[in-house]
Amino acid sequence: MSEVRIGVKKLLPQAQLPRYAHVGEYGDLAADLYAAEALTIAPGAPVLVPTGVAMEFPSTHGALVEDRSGLAVKGITTLAGVIDPGYRGEIRVVVTNLSANPVEVKVGDRIAQLRIVRRIEAEFVEVAELGEAARGAGGFGSTGV
Predict the structure, then answer these.
(1) Do 105 and 38 touch, CB atoms closer than 8 A?
(2) What is the rounded CA–CA span in Å between residue 80 and residue 17?
(3) For residues 13 and 103, what is the distance between their CA atoms, to the nearest angstrom?
(4) Residue 60 belongs to what domain range?
(5) Which residues, 6 or more positions from 23, have their beta carbon under 8 angstroms from its beta carbon?
(6) CATH number at residue 34
């Protein structure tokens, strides 16, 4: 396993650095992100949850902000979350509440997961036709539910 070094700057005293709950050979795929502010997420309302940290990724890596399963079952889901290598601002998590009840977030609560990804820059080339594949044009739900 190769190590990627990411600089993290605390912007608020109560901020916590991202960390993995389980490490090692069968460790977690993503690190936890923590709320740096207490707030209430009302039903149906998108909210920015501050983490109080900014990060310095190497040019070869970025990150994706993803749901935490424990919050997802309560109806809290992330709406956006691509962090490019050149971004140096505060990491804020965009979430919404799909449930009918408000959800309280306390300082230090795990609010999302941060998955580190390798940056690949593709070349997009216009073609007249696409090659054949077994799946073809079958999309979401095309293999049954």
Answers:
(1) yes
(2) 20
(3) 24
(4) 7-118
(5) none
(6) 2.70.40.10
29 close to 105: Cβ distance less than 8 angstroms: no
Determine the pLDDT at residue 58. Answer: 97
**Structural domain total, the chain:** 1
39-41 and 103-105 beta bridge pairing: antiparallel
Whether pTM exceeds 0.85: yes
Residues with Cβ within 8 Å of residue 88, at least 6 apart in sequence: 54, 55, 56
State the average pLDDT over residues 66-93. 95
In terms of DSSP H, where are the helices of the chain?
69-72
Of 138 and 82, the structure prediction assigns the larger pLDDT to: 82
Count other C-beta atoms under 10 Å from residue 8's C-beta: 15
Listed as own residue / partner, the contacts of 67-75 with beta carbons closer than 8 Å and 24 or more positions apart are 67/112, 67/113, 68/32, 68/110, 68/111, 68/112, 68/113, 70/110, 71/95, 71/103, 71/110, 71/111, 71/112, 74/99, 74/103, 75/43, 75/99, 75/101, 75/103
Residue 22 lies in a domain: yes
